[in-house]
Specification:
Length: about 400
Amino acid sequence: LLQTACPHCTGSHSELSPGCFASRPSLSSCHTAPRCSRNSGSLPHGYWPEMRRHALGWLRRWLKGEGDGRPCDEPLFTELPEKECLCFPENDRPVSVPSISEYIRPIAGRLIQGHPEGVTLSTPEDKRSQLEELLHIPDAYSDCMISEERLIVEDTFEARKLFLEAEPGIPLPLAIISRLGAQCREAVLVVHPEGKQVALGKISLPDMMDDDRMIVLADLRGTGETCWDNEPVHGISLHDAARAALWMGRTVTGDWISDMEAITEYLKEECGVETVSLLAFGEAGIAALGASVLNDSFASVEVRGMLASYLREEEDIAQSMSVHIPGILKWGDVSMLAALSQASVLIADPVDWAGKAYDGARIQAFKADIEHLASLMGLSARVFVTKS
């Protein structure tokens, strides 16, 4: 039973509709499709009597076998005033009671300290398999579709714009740019968490292209042209998109990795490309690194302005919800991703949770950690960390 208030809030509907409809085939195969229902009301955010009546009728039907699942009257009860429900009256939390971030910080630190010992008990293949399970990457879709292809010619360049459907109902807008008439064997796939238009402003096309190299600007799912989560929550972007992915048993990072792999396969099979490199900005850098850990199809990976550690030592948060991977620090940190990469890696201007660029000392410590983890796993780290 999926219930939402605020029908004018498109985010709630965009989140819940895919879950409701995507579950129907599975439920139908189990002959339980009637048990999937959705209810929307024109109410402020909250859990209102109308919603409670709907839930009560539904639960009585499917848990107790009573009624037909329609809303029913609630038993009489007395609502407690808000003040009696507060853990801390007047919202005045004692200093002795840590906030969530204060509570988890030492736990995260202890997990990170244990990573070197942990890798000695695992092979690189084990770590890669564990990461794939954590990310919940969807199965590869064998029949990607192309739609709305257009060719744009301007001066000495040409651009093909198209939609690659990496999964049913998941279009990935692409702009494939090359010199006019060039037969390119190399491609640089450029991704940004705000989409390809923002990515375009971060690069110099003439400097990156040559007669043998094309540039591919892509909107990963939920970004750019396909972005539906446009309202940050408490200043944090992609809140609803990340939450929806988690509700569906997936992660934004895992979905983005799947998108990059689908685009790469298309470039190699349909465009005659032999080698693909990744250039990723911000939170998309985590996905790019992850893709290079799980897939040896990438010649090199360059990430700019990427979060360098899941250990949050700052109160401010500048990262979007897309970076959240439940259980990641039990597996490893960003340094583990870099150490396990199967490509040459350049990490430029790594940042902390507040978006502040690492200084020279922190960059050196970050690089040393990567090299140490790689050596413990018997790997030769091809990772460079730089500061502009």
